[in-house]
Amino acid sequence: MIKSKLLGSSLIIAGTTIGAGMLALPLASAGLGFSTALVIMLGLWALMAFTALLMVEIHQYSSQDATLHTLAKEILGTKGKWIATFAMLFLFYSLCAAYIAGGGGQFTQRISEFTGFTISAPTGTLLFTVIVAAVVTIGTATVDKVNRLLFAGKIIAMIMVLTFLAPNVTESYLLSMPLGQGLIIASIPVIFTSFGFHGSIPAIVNYLDGHTPSLRKAIVIGSAIPLIIYILWQLATLGVVSQAELVQNSGLSALIGTLARSAHQSGLGSMIGIFADLALLTSFLGVSLGLFEFMGDTLRKKGAGVNRFVASVATFTPPLLFALFYPQGFIMALGYAAIALAVLAIFLPIAMVVRVRSQASSSEYYQVIGGKPALMITGVIGLLIVAAQLMITIGALPALG
């Protein structure tokens, strides 16, 4: 039973990680070259796996069904709870804004392709949001059924796309070097966001009954699967399209079109488009459901049920407005999400681990290796990620995508 749960937990972590962020990787890495992007991905994967293991260590000091908010309040007090709440909201809204901005453009194109009708980009974005909002508002069971179908299709489409692209990889394209040091730093927040899965850790802890050895294995295996898939995806995309073309065609729709033209395969453009659509949809459904449940619980009056319409409006209106004002804001919103993710996945785990280690009187609890030096290095990297995004915001670093 534990082996079955271990496999399931690893796949949940992998599924949570692999989403629309995968589409952002070639856009963020366009000016880097494959080798530099690979080094950054390996480093950020190690960082996120390490902080996830810190979360496993923290969970030993609370009940196995404790959420991140519960842990933050128990260990860091009320201020810790509010920091976790604000960071969670900021992360959810940023991700939803990215998915609406990217998915709205894709949806508008699909309507034109399949129906022959041409609608404006804002109208397409609005329709896309309303459809997803309707599915989420109906209930979790509906989201589950729709998501299973979409996820299966996404995996099939991804395998087909990689199979078609692999024979067209050009070695010289993979040897490209960074076009500038600023681009290296600017790419870090987006690539960092692509490895985020920490929101699922409390559910995994509960599912595995708080069994620490199994949790450690699930995190290492579950996070390694996306790393391998990301490397294959980067090989296929950065190796098929020249660096100059990638930089010139920096939008999501432009990337899809460029990949299709470069591979010289009939129907590949449609397959890449389907994969991109499914990746955006599965990610959007998962994140928006989490935000919807959070808003429903927050806005619910004592003794009353959840007003699903009000919760839906609070969930989808802010990110929709962002997407309407910044239709090309897919990469921008993912970059902002990195700030909230750094708080949730780096700073809060470090602060909580420092507190529990100082109070622990027994050595029987599992501790992540590295001691204080590893915590300090991790904290510094977190600060650099936040600083990089802030520098992009003020124009000190180039904006991507």
TrEMBL record:
The keyword Membrane applies. InterPro entries: Amino_acid_transport_2, Trp/try_permease_CS, Trp_tyr_transpt. The keyword Plastid does not apply. PROSITE patterns: AROMATIC_AA_PERMEASE_1. It is a multi-pass membrane protein. It is found in: Cell inner membrane. One of its GO terms (cellular component) is plasma membrane. Keywords: Amino-acid transport, Cell inner membrane, Cell membrane, Membrane, Transmembrane, Transmembrane helix, Transport. Belongs to the amino acid/polyamine transporter 2 family. Mtr/TnaB/TyrP permease subfamily. This is Aromatic amino acid permease. It comes from Vibrio metschnikovii. The lineage of its organism: Bacteria, Pseudomonadati, Pseudomonadota, Gammaproteobacteria, Vibrionales.
